Structure prediction request, 642 residues.
Amino acid sequence: MFLVHTPLSNMAACTSRVREMMGLLRILRHFPQNERLLSTSILRHAAASDGPPKFTPPTKPVIIDKTQKEASLRRFLSPEFIPPRQRTNPVKFSVERKDMIQRRKVLNIPEFYVGSILAVAMTDPHVNGNLNRFVGICIQRSGKGLGATFILRNVVDGQGVEICYELYNPRMRKIEVLKLEKRLDDNLMYLRDALPEYSSFNFDMQPVHYEITGDVPVSPLKVKMKPKPWSKRWERPKFNIKGIRFDLCLTLEMMEHAQKWAEPWRPYDMLKEYDTFSLEEQIFKEVQGKSQNVNSP
Amino acid sequence: MTALTCRFIKLADGLLRGAQVTVCRVGAALQRAPVIQCIRTHRTNTWWDEHLTEDNASFLKKVVTEEYKQQTTDKLNPLKDEPWPRHEWAEGSRRVGLVAVKLGMMPVWTKSGERHVVTMLQVQDCHVVKHLSKEEYNGRTAALIVGGKNISPFHRPEGYLEVFRNAGVPPKQKLTTFCVSDNAIIKPGTPLYAAHFCPGQYVDVTAKTIGKGFQGVMKRWGFKGQPASHGQTKTHRRPGSLGPGGDPAKVFKGKKMPGRMGNIYDTNHGLKVWRVNTKYNILYINGSVPGHRNCLVKVRDSILPTRLENNKNPPFPTFFADGDKELPEDLFDEDMFQFGQPMPE
Prediction:
C-alpha cells in the first residue's frame, strides 16, 4: 500500500490527469513490486504530456510505501486510552481497552483535537430520518476509557449550543472531521464569553482536506471577548490561556492583579509529574496491532 | 503480627530484652523491697521474628512461592481428588458465593441505548477453605468458609495459616462464611471461578465501606444543618435539638450524633450481573459496591424475594472447570450491547 502526494503547485496544472493517475495507482497498489519506479515514471509522463514545451523538471513525489509507512504517518493516540494515574489494577484498563478497540473496528473514530470542527451523527428515536446531525467546534475532551466524551459548540439561530457526546456510545453513527486543527489551548471553554462569531460554524460546511503526515496545523487565532463579567476569570494564570486577546479587554493593572493568583511552584511539583511516554508506546502498539482494518486508508 | 503485652517482673531478674523494651521504674529506688516492674514486650508469632539471615529469608520466599503455585495447580482439577457428590439445583437451596477484588467502574449500554454504570469485580484465587456441618455451625444450616486473594504467610500468625494447610491451599487475605444448604456443600480446596454467576442474575455484595473518620452530623446522618446567614451565631452544621424536653428529660439511646463514619461492613442488595469475563474472571455488576478500589468483597446470590426468579438454575453447587465444557471468553446479558455486534436502532 502506498500513497503519492504531489505538491500543491502542480495540482492546479494537472488535477484531472493526476486524479486518473491516482485511480490507476490505487489499482496498482495491490501489486507491490517496484513501487517507487512505477510512481515516478507515471508522474513524469503526466507532467510532460500536457502544457507548454518548456522544460519542467519532474516533481519529486513524496512516496509513503509500506516500509516507511509507520515513521512518516502522524502517530496519534487518542487521549482516552492513556490510563489516569491511580492505584487501579492494570487489568481493568486492559480489559476496557479491548472493548474500545472492538468498538473502533465497527465505528471509525478519527483523530481530532480540541479546536477541530466536527460533524457528529447520532441515532435519535425522536427525529424523522432517525439521524441527528450536529456540527461544532470541539472545546473539550475529557474522560478516560469507555466513558470518554467531547463537547461540541456552535451558535444556532443566535443561541449558543453545546452538546457533550460520548465517543463510545452505541447510538453514535458517524464522526466526521470537517477541519482538523489545534488551537493555542487544550480547553476552549472561554468561547462562551467570546464574541459569537468565533463559535459559529455553518452546518453545511464542506470538509477541508488535511494532511495525514507531519504536524497538525496550530491556528494562532486569538479570540476577542465580550465585556466582563465572564463565566470564569480567564485572565488568571491557573487557566493558562493563550488564545484570548487580553490587550483589548483588560488593562495592564488588571493583568498584574491577576498574577497574584499565580502559583510559580506548580511546574516543579514532583507529585504532579506523570510520565506517560512508555505507557503511550505500549498502548499505541496494542491499538495499532489490533485495529489494522480500520487504520488502512 | 506482633502484639504489645505487659509483663510483670521482679526487680531481681531485670535483664532487659533489647531495644524494643521500655522500663518504667515506679519510684522504688530507695526501698530494697522487691518491686514489681512493668516491661513492655512484643508477643510475636510470625516467621520473621526468628531473625533469619538474608540467604535464608530469600530461600524461604522462593520455596513458599513454588509451594503455593504447586498447590494451586493441584487444585485446578477437582475431579482428580475424590470430589464430594454433586447435586442438582432445587427450589430453596442456597449455594456458595465468591470473594472478589473491586477493580473499578465503567459504563455499559443496553440495546435500546440506555447507559448504566457497572463495577468490575475480579475473582482472584478464590478457594473453599473449610466446611462446617450443621452441628458445628449453628444447628440450622451448614456453612462453607471461602478465602479470597493469596497473600504471603510471613506476616500472619500460625493459627491462621493452619486452616489453609489443612485444606492444601495458599493463605488468603479474606475469609468469609457462607450459609449453605446441605445439597450445595463443596470439598475444601476446590477453586471457585467467576462463571459461578451467570449474566442476568442478581447478587448481593458485602464489603467494608470507605472509612471517613470522625464526621459531623450532616455528612454522617444527612441532617440539614442551619442557614448560612440571617443571624445564625456560630451554628451552621450542628445537630440542633437532641430530643423532646422535660418529659423524658433524657436523650434516647441511639440518638444520631457525630462520630466515626465508615469502615463497617455494608451490603448492597439486588445488583444485576451484566457480563462475566471467564478469561480474567471478572464480574460486571450494576451500580456501585461498598469499599474502595482493590478491596475484597463478598458476593452471593441475592436473597430479595422479587429477584428469586432471575436466579433459577445456576451452576450448582458451583462452576467446575473440568475441561469438558469450554465457555466463551465473555458471557453477556441479553439486554446488553456488545461492542463487536452491529449497532442497534
Summary: Residues 76 and 141 of chain A are 15 Å apart (CA to CA). Chain A touches chain B at residues 86-89, 91-92, 95-96, 99-100, 102-103, 105-107, 123, 130, 145-147, 166, 168-171, 173 (CB under 8 Å).
